[in-house]
Design a protein that fits this description.
InterPro entries: ABM_dom, AI-2_Isomerase_LsrG, Dimeric_a/b-barrel. This protein has 101 residues and is an alpha+beta fold. Helix content is 32%, strand content 33%. The chain has one domain (7-97): Alpha-Beta Plaits (2-Layer Sandwich), CATH 3.30.70.100. It has helices at residues 20-35, 64-71, 76-83, and strands at 7-14, 40-48, 51-61, 93-97. The two termini are 21 Å apart.
Length: 101
């Protein structure tokens, strides 16, 4: 059984003009892989209603071990490499969160 504090974060990024649909498709495919990880609690990609070119992904992992396993997954690097040219930012803007208990 896993122990430790759940690791949560969110990622935000903005699609370059004309790239939002490709990003949405890639996120859906990537999400299926992430949600199959044993320690994944949630992987929820969303688009902002007021600006559908803006993406927000909420992620939670059972603990640090599960998060590190996620980071080492073989599909993460290729996903991020493919995402890079499609977004305005140099990379996804990640915010690590600490649970309030």
């Amino acid at each position: 059984m896993r122990t430790g504090t759940m690791r949560t974060l969110h990622a935000e990024f903005t699609a370059k003009p004309g790239c939002a649909e490709e990003i949405a498709e890639r996120l859906a495919e990537y999400g299926r892989s992430v949600r199959a990880e044993p320690g994944n609690v949630i992987f929820a990609p969303n688009r902002r209603e007021d600006d559908p070119d803006r993406f927000f992904v909420f992620e939670a992992y059972a603990d640090e071990e599960a998060f590190q396993t996620h980071l080492a997954a073989p599909y993460g690097g290729p996903f991020n490499e493919a995402l890079g040219p499609l977004i305005r930012e140099p990379a996804s803007v990640l915010t690590l969160l600490t649970p309030v208990e």
